[in-house]
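for the recovery benchmark. tokens below, seq after
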């Protein structure tokens, strides 16, 4: 099954800059090391790749929460170096919004 409204996903810039690509974030710095080793040196590169994965990946779990519905989406992330890596992304479709928003991403 595919992520609903995958063409309209929201990927907050602060999530990319302040977490997934931040070498100083307490939890994100390890993810930043991972993404930078794959060649992601800019927010725009990573955002494009995550948008592609949102559309091509497959939902592995769907979890209802107090805030809305959470989706775990697994797929292959295209890297700037021309390789692919297995990645799990987590999206939430909050009750008051229609488009899913990125929560996190990590190697799978």
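predicted aa per position
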């Amino acid at each position: 099954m595919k992520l609903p409204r995958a063409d309209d996903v929201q990927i907050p810039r602060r999530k990319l800059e302040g977490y997934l690509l931040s070498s100083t974030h307490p939890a994100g710095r390890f993810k930043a090391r991972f993404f930078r080793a794959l060649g992601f040196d800019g927010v725009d590169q990573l955002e494009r790749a995550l948008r592609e994965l949102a559309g091509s990946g497959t939902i592995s779990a769907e979890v209802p929460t107090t805030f809305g519905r959470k989706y775990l989406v697994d797929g292959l992330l295209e890297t700037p170096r021309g390789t692919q890596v297995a990645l799990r992304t987590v999206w939430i479709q909050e009750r008051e919004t229609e488009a899913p928003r990125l929560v996190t991403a990590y190697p799978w």
